[in-house]
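Exercise 7. Given the encoded structure of a 643-residue chain, write a plausible sequence.
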C-alpha cells in the first residue's frame, strides 16, 4: 500500500478539505475475491475511519465460472442454474448455434459461448465479483438471464487508467421471453429445459444487454452487480459471456418529410415487433398512436422511426429477406421509393417490394421483401402525406442536468436522466415546433393558464405546438406567452413539465438543440469542463472531471461568444477581472463576463478581463475548479472547443 499524494498536512483551514490517494496492490498469489480494507485519518480533535473493498479479479471469465447452467440431455443431474435443479439443455442450445466454444455475433458484438463440457461450471452468478476483461470499444455486452424473476443491478467497469464507470445490468427472467427488460434484447428462445430427472417442456430464453463505454479508454476489469433472490438469498442474475466492441451510434435526426402511419392489407399499420433496437423485426399490427407506428418518409428516401431506419436484414436482396430497423447510414438497402401508381414501396438495393409475409393480417406478422407483383395485395401500402420541417436535433437539457423526455401520444413530457434514447432526441424544427418520435411538444388542449400540462401530440401546426427559445435560456410557448417549466420545482426523474408565467428561474432554463457547435470542452490532463453536480443554480462552479456524455459537459459555442450548458452561460463571477476569480454558471444576460474568445494557441480568453480560462493548482484532479488567470499558454490553460 502506497500513498500517491501527500498523506500528512500541517494544518487544514476551517471549511476546507484535503484528499489523500492510496494505491493498494493485492499481494502476489492472492486468491480472487473481495478483501475488506479500512483507513483512519487522525487529527487533533480525534480520528475518522472509513471502509472500502479491494476486489481481486478472476483471471478470466472461465476462471470465474461457478454455476452449472447447461447439462446434457443424457445427464441432467449436475444442473443448478436457478439454484435448484434446472438448467439449459446443451442439445437445445446447439440447435440454435450455441455449442461449446462457438463464436456468434448479436447486435454488433461478437461473443464466445463457454468452451466447457455440458455439466461443468459455465456461468457467472452476479455476486459482486471482479473479472479481468481487456479491450477497447464503444460497448460492453453481456449474455445471460435472470432466475426467480428479472435481474437488475449496478456494477462497475474498471479502466486501465484507474478510472471507473458504473453501469446497469438488466435481464428478464429466463422463463419470460415476452417481457424483455428495458435496455436488453432477446438473443434466442429454447423449447425445453432439463431438471434433475430429465427433460421438462418449459420454454426459456437468453438475453443480451449492452452498456456504453468511455471513449478512448481500455477496459481492464468488470465488477458484476450483486443481486439476490430475497426469498432464498441465491444470486438472481447469471452471465454466460461478456464481449467488448461496437461502434458509437447516436439516434439519427428526423428527416425532412411527412410523418404518420404506413397502412397496408386489412388496414393494418407498419409497426415494430419490440422496442426500437437495431435489428428488431418490422411487422404488421393493428393501428394505434404509439411512436413505433410513426414513420417519417424522408426526402432522402429513408423510412425513419425513433432515430433508426427501415432496412433489409444484413443488406439482403433475395425473396423473403426480413425487413428490420437499424442505425441510419444512407445505404441503398435503407432507401425506399414510393410507386404511387401500384402502391409499392420499392427497396433501392434489391428492386424488390415491401411485403406482408403470406398476406396475413395477424398482429405481429413479419414484413419481408419480394419480387414486385401487381396482383399481390400484401405489397399495397399507403404512406404519410404532407410535409414536416427539419432542423437541428439533440437533447433538451435543463433543471439540474436532467433532460426532457417524450412519452406516448397524450402522455406528459417529463424530466429524466439524460441518455441516448430516441425519446430524448428532439428536433428544433424550422416551423417552431419541438419534435420527438415524429410528434410535437404540445400545450394540452391549447391552454394558456399557469400549470397547463405539456404533452406529446400529433403535429398539426397548431399555435399550442410552437415555441421560441429566448436569449436567457427560457422556452416560450408562442400561444400563451408562458414558459416551459418543471413542476415543483423539482428535478426528480418523472417530473412533469407545464407552462407557467416566465420568471427565468432555474426550472425554466433549457438548452435547446442548435446548429451551433456543441459537445465537450476538453483540457488539462484530458479532463473536461463540467457544471459541478449538474446543478442549475446560479453560482454553481465550473470544474474538471472525467469526460463523459452527460448534459453537464455538453457546451454550445453560441454565436454571441458565450459558452452554454444546461441553458445557462459560463460566467466569470461578479464580472471580475483579477487573477483567481472563479468561473461559474449563471443565467445568460449578455454581460461582458460571459463572453469568451478562442485563440489560435488553444487558450480561451475572457473578453472583459483579457485573462485566460485556467485550471486551478494547476491540477487535473476531478473536481478541480476553473478560474481566470493571466494568460501564459500553460498546459492548464489550453482547451479544445466543440467543432
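Solution.
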Amino acid at each position: 500500500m502506497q500513498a500517491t499524494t501527500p498523506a500528512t498536512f500541517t494544518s487544514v483551514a476551517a471549511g476546507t478539505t484535503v484528499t489523500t490517494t492510496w494505491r493498494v496492490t493485492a499481494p502476489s498469489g492472492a486468491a480472487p475475491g473481495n478483501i475488506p480494507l479500512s483507513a483512519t485519518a487522525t487529527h487533533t480533535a480525534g480520528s475518522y475511519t472509513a471502509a472500502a473493498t479491494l476486489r481481486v479479479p478472476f483471471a478470466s471469465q472461465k476462471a470465474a465460472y461457478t454455476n452449472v447452467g447447461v447439462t446434457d440431455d443424457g445427464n441432467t443431474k449436475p444442473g443448478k442454474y436457478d439454484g435448484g435443479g434446472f438448467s439449459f439443455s446443451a442439445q437445445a442450445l446447439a440447435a440454435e448455434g450455441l455449442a461449446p466454444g462457438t463464436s456468434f455475433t448479436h447486435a454488433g458484438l461478437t461473443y464466445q459461448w463457454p468452451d466447457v463440457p455440458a455439466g461443468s461450471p459455465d456461468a457467472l452468478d452476479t455476486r459482486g465479483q471482479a473479472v479481468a476483461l481487456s479491450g477497447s470499444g464503444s460497448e460492453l455486452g453481456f449474455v445471460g438471464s435472470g432466475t426467480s424473476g428479472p435481474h437488475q443491478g449496478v456494477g462497475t467497469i474498471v479502466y486501465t487508467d484507474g478510472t471507473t464507470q458504473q453501469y446497469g445490468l438488466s435481464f428478464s427472467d429466463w422463463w419470460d421471453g415476452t417481457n424483455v427488460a428495458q435496455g436488453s434484447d432477446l438473443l434466442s428462445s429454447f423449447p425445453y429445459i432439463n431438471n434433475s430427472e430429465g427433460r421438462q417442456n418449459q420454454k426459456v430464453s437468453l438475453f443480451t444487454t449492452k452498456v456504453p463505454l468511455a471513449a478512448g479508454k481500455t477496459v481492464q476489469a468488470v465488477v458484476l452487480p450483486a443481486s439476490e433472490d430475497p426469498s432464498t438469498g441465491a444470486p438472481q442474475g447469471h452471465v454466460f459471456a461478456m464481449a467488448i466492441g461496437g461502434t458509437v451510434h447516436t439516434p439519427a435526426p428526423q428527416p425532412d418529410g411527412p410523418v404518420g402511419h404506413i397502412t397496408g392489407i386489412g388496414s393494418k399499420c407498419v409497426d415494430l415487433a419490440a422496442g426500437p433496437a437495431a435489428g428488431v423485426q418490422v411487422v404488421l399490427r393493428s393501428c394505434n398512436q404509439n411512436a413505433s407506428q410513426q414513420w417519417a418518409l424522408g426526402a432522402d428516401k429513408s423510412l425513419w422511426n425513433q432515430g433508426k431506419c427501415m432496412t433489409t436484414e444484413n443488406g439482403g436482396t433475395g425473396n423473403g429477406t426480413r425487413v428490420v430497423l437499424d442505425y441510419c447510414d444512407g445505404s441503398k438497402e435503407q432507401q425506399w421509393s414510393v410507386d404511387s401508381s401500384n402502391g409499392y414501396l420499392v427497396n433501392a438495393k434489391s428492386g424488390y417490394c415491401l411485403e406482408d409475409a403470406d398476406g396475413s393480417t395477424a398482429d405481429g406478422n413479419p414484413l419481408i421483401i419480394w419480387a414486385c407483383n401487381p396482383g399481390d395485395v400484401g405489397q399495397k401500402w399507403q404512406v404519410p402525406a404532407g410535409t414536416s420541417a427539419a432542423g437541428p436535433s439533440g437533447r433538451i437539457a435543463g433543471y439540474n442536468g436532467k433532460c426532457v423526455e417524450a412519452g406516448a401520444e397524450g402522455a406528459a413530457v417529463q424530466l429524466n436522466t439524460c441518455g441516448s434514447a430516441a425519446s430524448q432526441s428532439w428536433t428544433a424544427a424550422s416551423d417552431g415546433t419541438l419534435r420527438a418520435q415524429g410528434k410535437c411538444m404540445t400545450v394540452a388542449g391549447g391552454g394558456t393558464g399557469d400549470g397547463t400540462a405539456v404533452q406529446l401530440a400529433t403535429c398539426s401546426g397548431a399555435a399550442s405546438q410552437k415555441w421560441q427559445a429566448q436569449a436567457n435560456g427560457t422556452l416560450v410557448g408562442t400561444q400563451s406567452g408562458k414558459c416551459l417549466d418543471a413542476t415543483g420545482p423539482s428535478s426528480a426523474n418523472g417530473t412533469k413539465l407545464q407552462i407557467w408565467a416566465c420568471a427565468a428561474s432555474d426550472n425554466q432554463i433549457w438548452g435547446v438543440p442548435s446548429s451551433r457547435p456543441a459537445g465537450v470542452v476538453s483540457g488539462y490532463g484530458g479532463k473536461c469542463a463540467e457544471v459541478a453536480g449538474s446543478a442549475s443554480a446560479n453560482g454553481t462552479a465550473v470544474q474538471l472531471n472525467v469526460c463523459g456524455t452527460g448534459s453537464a459537459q455538453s457546451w454550445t459555442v453560441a454565436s454571441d461568444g458565450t459558452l452554454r450548458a444546461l441553458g445557462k452561460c459560463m460566467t466569470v463571477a461578479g464580472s471580475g477581472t483579477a487573477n483567481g476569480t472563479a468561473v461559474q454558471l449563471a443565467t445568460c444576460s449578455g454581460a461582458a463576463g460571459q463572453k469568451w474568445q478562442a485563440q489560435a494557441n488553444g487558450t480561451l480568453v475572457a473578453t472583459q478581463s483579457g485573462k485566460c480560462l485556467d485550471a486551478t493548482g494547476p491540477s487535473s484532479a476531478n473536481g478541480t475548479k476553473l478560474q481566470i488567470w493571466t494568460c501564459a499558454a500553460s498546459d492548464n490553460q489550453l482547451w479544445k472547443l466543440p467543432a
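Remark. The CA atoms of residues 603 and 638 lie 5 Å apart. Students should compare their own answers with the one above.
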